[in-house]
Amino acid sequence: MASAILIEALIFVVALGALLKASDWFVDSAEKIGLSWGVSPFVIGVTIVAFGTSLPELASSIAAVMQGDSKIVIGNVVGSNITNIVLVLGLVAIVAKRVPVDFKAMDLPLLLGSAFLFWFTLSDGNFEIWEALVCLACLVIFLISSFSGTEDDNEDDLPKAVWKDYLFLVLGGALVWLGAKFTIDAIQEVCRLTEISSGFVAQTVVALGTSLPEVVVSISAAKKGQSGIAVGNVIGSNIFNTYAVMGIARLFGGLVVEPSILTFSLPLMVALTVLLAFMVLSSKISRWEGALLLILYAFFLIQSILML
């Protein structure tokens, strides 16, 4: 049994790594193609890049629903949103010592609204199809508000998309799906062998794995003196996770809501979102606040284990 668990764990690591790498290929290729078509870099940022950072969560969630283990979806979204706030911003604040915040006025209310709407839609233990449509409508509102007031930049030196960009776009998309499928297969088998809830694995291990792009990008930005980007990255990613991942995944089938999500993880996610809002209002996130966020991440992991 131990060898079987080890093999499945290895498959999980390899599949998740392939999923993350394929997401990079997909996003990079889509960005180059979009720029070559004259699409505004800002529009690309709030659409392709935002979609790309949530692509691992979206792909794994759709695969989970289609393979009959939909409890992974909500655990993945809630866990990823928590991880983005406490781990990503915590590490960035530690590395950068002080994170200056510069955000559009609409982003913070939309982030808070997405968190409370998420809580409200799941409060009865169900996520209905009409609630999924509301989430997708809110996603459209978020994108429109992001586009409003922006100027179209006419770039003289637009990059030229070559055949390799289109190849990597298709190849990346195919590998994202395969990586997600094998990731979910491995999770299901490990959970079967160990009798651990797949929902727990989704909101801890899978959430951490699918948040790795945000971790790497944000720490890299902090080292380059661009740590404020991390806040926008977290806000956009969490909004996209809540609206797009939940909304789209629900279109493929019903979602199972575990009781522990309603009693602990989801309320914690909402509380952390409110905490982030208060931190952002001061126009900076200090190093001690970063340390506090990392402590809260440790609390989340320990409490999740104790609730098994």
| Percent of residues in β-strands | under 5%
CATH structural class: Mainly Alpha
SSE order, as H and E?
A: HHHEHHHHHHHEH
- The shape, in one word, is globular
Question: Which secondary-structure class do the elements indicate?
Answer: mainly alpha
Number of strands: 2
Number of helices: 11
In whole angstroms, the N-to-C terminal distance is 21 Å
Total domains, how many? 1
Cα radius of gyration in angstroms? 19 Å
Q: How would you characterize the overall build of this protein?
A:
The chain is mainly alpha-helical and 308 residues long. The protein has one domain (2-150, 159-306): NCX, central ion-binding region (A middle domain of Talin 1, Up-down Bundle), CATH 1.20.1420. It has eleven helices and two strands, in the order H-H-H-E-H-H-H-H-H-H-H-E-H. It has helices at 2-36, 41-66, 71-96, 107-122, 129-147, 163-194, 198-210, 212-223, 228-250, 259-281, 287-306; strands at 98-100, 284-286. The chain has a two-stranded antiparallel sheet with strand order 1-2. The longest helix is centred in the first third of the chain and has 35 residues, at 2-36. The two termini are 21 Å apart. The model has no long low-confidence stretch (mean pLDDT 81).
